Amino acid sequence: MHRARKRFGQNFLQDAGVIYSIVALINPSADAHVIEIGPGLGALTRPLLSNLDHLDLLEIDRDLVAYWNQQNLAGLRVIEGDALNFDFLAWAKRCPKNGSLCKVVGNLPYNISSPLLFHLVAAARVIDEQVFMLQAEVVERMVAPAGSSDFSRLSVMLQARYHMEQILEVPPEAFDPQPKVNSAVVRMIPRADFNLTDAQWASLEKVVAAAFSQRRKMLRTNLQAFAEKLVLSENELKSRAQDISVDRYIEWAKAIAK
Ligand code: SAM
Fold first, then answer.
1. CA 155 to ligand 1 center in whole angstroms
2. Residue range 56-73: average pLDDT?
3. How does pLDDT run across 200-246, given as a tens digit for each residue?
4. 15: which of 24, 42, 111, 240 is 20 to 30 A away, CA to CA?
5. Domain edge (last residue) among 190, 223, 249
6. Burial class (CB in 10 A: 0-12, 13-18, 19+), 185
7. Structure confidence by residue, pLDDT tens digits, 142-151
8. Is 219 in the same domain as 185?
9. CB-ligand 1 contact for 82 (6 Å cutoff)
């Protein structure tokens, strides 16, 4: 029997209703190209596979990789690796171009959720959809609107790249072992209108990091280093980072990258 490993963020889903809801949400057509990050003992894997011709698994825990290899299930491909280093862009090249969807899904290890979300941005142009279970507090920040206290660097960067929707709240009792925090499921669809170059994206990272570096300070202070390239209104100079819209940050990134 597998003992849950804390260092790999192993909290296994066990609530049949929650599992059913997540799989219904992912709702893959049989020919979809899907990779599950962190299959664990298969709470999502088995019901997903029953709907799919093929399913790829990406798992860091060698014991679980061995477990899946032993199962010898048709259509399953097991990849041993760290999702933080995995080349999702190369993986997506295998996606069929006939209109079936390319999806990344998983009940993610909470200790790596933010870096993993940023890592996945590099593959966003070839991914159709991501469905993840995360810490509820992280999902709230991801979807927070400008002006709210949860609006943060994570909100701006991910909202610049994806449409996101919080779908489901999941209490600790749905897992074994139980995490200390609430969880939530988020659906992420890359924005079709995304048009930043790599240099502009890098500028967005810089200006957003600077704006949020001291949340309580006015942008006049936090964005001083960009004063030459950015024309801010008097109102904006007096605003705080959380009051600026994602679109406005994108305009600033474009101006800085010029
Ligand atoms: N999907 C299973 C479930 O819902 O019961 C397990 C979810 S558990 C929260 C997270 C899973 O991700 C574990 O299987 C863990 O070993 C795996 N994992 C942790 N860190 C990882 C990483 N860096 N790359 C790939 N998988 C990872």
1. 24
2. 96
3. 999 999 999 999 999 999 999 999 999 999 999 999 999 999 999 99
4. 111
5. 190
6. buried
7. 999 999 999 9
8. no
9. yes
Q: What is the DSSP string of 174-237?
A: GEESPPSS-EEEEEEEE-TT----HHHHHHHHHHHHHHTTTTTS-HHHHTGGGTTT----HHHH
Tell me: do 224 and 161 sit in the same domain.
Answer: no
CATH number of the domain enclosing 109: 3.40.50.150
Does the pLDDT of residue 189 top 70, yes or no? yes
Pocket test for ligand 1, best of 35, 57, 59 (most atoms within 8 A of CB): 59
What's the token pair of residue 115? Answer: 């870096």
Q: Which residues form the domain of 212?
A: 198-257
Task: Report yes or no: 185 and 22 within 8 Å, Cβ to Cβ.
Answer: yes
The answer, as to whether pTM is greater than 0.90, is yes
List the structure tokens of 216. 């309580």
Tens-digit pLDDT profile for residues 143-178: 999 999 999 999 999 999 999 999 999 999 999 999
CA 5 / ligand 1 centre spacing (Å)? 10
User: Which protein residue's CA is at the shortest distance from atom 6 of ligand 1?
Assistant: 40
144 alpha carbon – ligand 1 mean position (Å): 26
Average confidence (pLDDT) over 109-115 = 94
Q: Is residue 1 part of a domain?
A: no
- Ligand 1 centroid to 85 CA: how many Å? 14
- The answer to whether the CB of 28 is under 6 A from ligand 1 is no
Where a domain ends, among 146, 164, 190? 190
